[in-house]
Design goal:
The protein is an alpha+beta fold. It folds into three domains: 8-209, PPM-type phosphatase domain (Phosphatase 2c, domain 1); 222-321, Phosphorylase Kinase, domain 1 (2-Layer Sandwich), CATH 3.30.200; 325-509, Orthogonal Bundle (Transferase(Phosphotransferase), domain 1), CATH 1.10.510. Helices cover 37% and strands 19% of the residues. It is built from 18 helices and 21 strands. The chain has helices at 8-11, 28-43, 52-75, 161-164, 169-178, 183-196, 218-225, 282-296, 328-334, 340-359, 391-394, 414-418, 424-440, 471-480, 492-500, 504-507, 514-517, 519-542, and strands at residues 14-21, 83-91, 94-100, 104-109, 112-115, 121-123, 129-131, 144-149, 155-159, 205-209, 239-240, 243-251, 255-262, 268-274, 306-307, 318-321, 325-327, 362-363, 372-375, 380-382, 389-390. It has a six-stranded antiparallel sheet with strand order 11-12-13-14-16-15, with helices on one face. Helix 2 packs antiparallel against helix 3 (52-75), helix 5 runs antiparallel to helix 6 (183-196) and helix 10 packs antiparallel against helix 13 (424-440).
């Protein structure tokens, strides 16, 4: 078991592992030690933005490949380095269980003793069984995963088959109940009974109890958020924690942004501070801190870099790189009809930055022209991470009730309006809208999307506004901004490729009747025909 110190305890949790080398393996003991040590070391090195499931599965897959390769290389056998493995990560109020083989996890809760894992064994006859799954046998690894809600007082027991095959569940529970305040004594009692019953296999037993869960009450959580005061109004020439204010760049109702200079390094930076209007708003403060946290974990040439502050802070603010340039909105106003190749270059740059978010299991959620900067060299950088969804942080319980509808109305994916789960396809929708607007100056649906009108809007072909755009580009845009996320491109590279190369599956789609493409125009045409027919009949009757 490994209990980290500092912030990792909150963002990664506590990890515990048990492994048992297969008896028929040439190096089972070495394999089990490598898996336990490797998992405990590597799990805490994975990005804090990743979910527990993503982190553990990537580590286990890598360990499995290493064991299989070592077995083939050193022993020329698929049974060279084979072990079972069961791991549990305790994060916030949830226990995440990963299981391969026949080691076990039990839980004792309110007197009920329950096995939480399923043995991966196949019976040959009444006396003989063999492992159907284990680490190191095959390159493909099938991992059992489940999550359980934790309760204070829960006791978890991790055992190898050398223990539980020689002591039944009732006796294990009795040992726990006989030593309620001494889990070490309970552990020794369980193992000793297995020894007394002639166990001749590896005897591993690990027991731990949930003494306290990390959920804070609202007052504790809010007090932690407002440990630092808001900065005072800043003016040119003032110095805050070693940052000299050069000038005020801009402000909105939520933030104040300044150009500053580090008095030690003379580096020009941007200092972003929260507006005093939100000094008593914990939800806003939470999002402000969240923005710095997300920015510090992404290092990409097309994402604004948030800088580490090594000096002690006396107020709430953060520092980022200074980018000389203009927003993409300003650029669009200055150059209203860019070439298709220029737009492709811009979209490729934005996609490169977005992929850095998606690889870290983050979704930007507020991609719009105002949140993209174009520098003097034509390099684009994504800014503003206050709305970013971080999978790993979402697993941590807080008393805050956050608003799920984030982003800006014209660029927000429809699923935010209907309460569906956001995904990387939500960012693809926003990028598709920006692309459409770059090429036409218009929006693909002609009006704001809302939960009320999602079924009544239709995609407007971009060729109505820019006839020079190829049909296949129009089809790619239509797919990128589809109302239903499952009909969009699944990854960014598919969209950028479809913007540069014709996709036959999009261009050669079956003909869609006009009544489906534009029902309003169809009914307007029918009404006009009926009106003309009635006028002709009236004229004939009058004659």
């Amino acid at each position: 078991m490994h209990v980290p110190e500092g912030p990792l305890l909150n963002t990664k949790g506590i990890a515990t592992v048990i492994a048992d080398g297969m008896s028929g393996s040439d190096a089972g003991r070495e394999a089990s030690q490598a898996c336990v040590n490797g998992f405990l070391a590597d799990y805490f090195s994975t990005p804090e933005s990743w979910t527990v499931k993503t982190s553990a599965q990537k580590i286990l897959s890598a360990l499995n490949h290493w064991l299989h390769g070592q077995g083939q290389r050193r022993f020329n056998s698929h049974k060279g380095m084979v072990t079972t493995l069961t791991a549990m990560v305790l994060k916030s109020n949830t226990g995440h269980i990963f299981h391969i083989g026949d080691t076990r996890i039990y839980r004792l809760r309110n007197g009920e003793f329950e096995q939480l894992t399923r043995d991966h064994r196949v019976s040959v006859n009444e006396k003989k069984t063999y492992l159907s799954r284990a680490m190191g046998i095959e390159l493909h690894l099938d991992i059992d995963y489940r999550s359980v809600l934790l309760e204070t007082g829960d006791i978890f027991v991790m055992l190898t088959d050398g223990v539980y095959e020689f002591i039944n569940d009732q006796n294990i529970r009795a040992c726990l109940q006989n030593h309620p305040d001494d889990l070490q004594a309970a552990c020794e009692s369980i193992v000793q009974q297995a020894v007394d019953n002639k166990s001749n296999d590896n005897l591993s037993c690990q027991i731990f109890r949930i003494e306290q869960l990390p959920t804070e009450n609202k007052n504790e959580f809010y007090d932690k958020l407002i440990e630092l005061p808001f900065p005072p109004p800043l003016e040119a020439g003032m110095i805050l924690d070693g940052y000299k204010i050069l000038r005020h760049l801009f402000s909105n109702k939520r933030t104040e942004v300044y150009l500053a200079q580090d008095t030690q390094t003379e580096q020009r930076v941007v200092l972003k501070a929260p507006s005093v209007n939100y000094e008593d708003d914990p939800d806003f403060i939470h999002h402000f801190l969240h923005e710095e946290w997300a920015g510090r974990r992404i290092n990409n040439p097309h994402v604004m870099k948030v800088l580490e502050i090594e000096r002690r802070r006396t107020a709430l603010y953060y520092i980022s790189e200074y980018i000389e340039g203009r927003t993409l909105r300003q650029w669009m106003n200055d150059e209203p009809r860019p070439s298709l190749n220029r737009v492709r270059n811009f979209i490729e740059q934005i996609s490169h930055g977005l992929r850095a978010f998606h690889r870290m299991e983050m979704i930007h959620q507020d991609l719009k022209p105002e949140n993209i900067l174009v520098d003097e060299h034509g390099t684009l950088k994504i800014i503003d991470f206050g709305s970013t969804k971080i999978a790993g942080i979402e697993e941590i319980s807080t008393p805050l009730e956050t608003n799920n509808l984030l982003g800006t109305i014209n660029y927000t994916a429809p699923e935010y309006h209907t309460g569906e789960q956001a995904s990387n396809r939500s960012d693809i929708f926003s990028l598709g809208v920006i692309t459409y607007e770059l090429l036409s100056g218009k929006l693909p649906y002609g009006r704001e999307l809302s939960a009320r009108n999602l079924r009544r809007v239709n995609y407007r072909s971009i060729k109505q506004f820019n006839p020079e755009v190829p049909v296949w580009v129009d089809k790619a845009l239509e797919k990128a901004v589809h109302i239903k996320p499952e009909h969009r491109f699944s990854i960014l590279s598919e969209f950028t490729h479809a913007m540069c190369q014709p996709d036959s599956s999009l261009v050669n789609q079956d003909y869609v009747p006009l009544i489906k493409r534009n029902p309003l125009k169809v009914w307007q045409g029918i009404s006009l025909i009926l009106l003309l027919g009635n006028l002709v009949l009236i004229y004939l009757l009058l004659r």
